[in-house]
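Forgive a beginner's question, but would it be possible to get a protein, spelled out as residues, together with the matching structure tokens, please?
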Amino acid sequence: MNKYGHWLLVILVGISFIPGFYYFEFTLAYMMAIIFGIIGFSAVLYMAIVIQIKHKNKTI
């Protein structure tokens, strides 16, 4: 994977939220999907930030 591949993953996971909000209904299944999606997006974003910090510290 290239130097900024982890940010591509963050963008892809973020873009996957667009249909979820576009077709949103107030049902239990949609609410659970949004909650788990936010948790997953937060985890991927945290992973990307940690990887970026490790890359930055490695080059110095």
